[in-house]
Write a structure and sequence with these properties.
Elements lengths: L2 H91 L2
């Protein structure tokens, strides 16, 4: 081989090594950026789920309270009906 061929080969090898290093650095940076975006997305999803759980808890609490109010309403309606019948009986008694 002549000296120009060896020199060209060395330049090609250096160029190839530099290109590979640049690709590796770029890949590392892109991977790091993707990992950061992934972590941010996961954090946002966790936050949103927490907020939804809080809303669900409030909703469930409201449903439970409404159920209790409805049960009490039935009892109160029965008492009112009993009171009406007693008043009617008293009115009939005093006539």
């Amino acid at each position: 081989m002549n000296s120009w061929g060896l020199k060209g080969m060395i330049e090609a090898i250096i160029t190839g090594v530099v290109a590979i290093l640049v690709c590796m650095i770029n890949n590392y940076c892109q991977s790091k950026k993707a990992d950061e975006q992934h972590a941010e997305t996961v954090s946002l999803i966790v936050y949103r789920l927490d907020q939804l759980e809080k809303k669900q808890d409030l909703h469930n609490n409201a449903i439970s309270r409404l159920y209790e109010v409805e049960k009490q309403l039935v009892v109160d309606e029965e008492r009112i009906n009993d009171a009406k019948h007693r008043i009617e009986d008293l009115e009939q008694y005093h006539k």
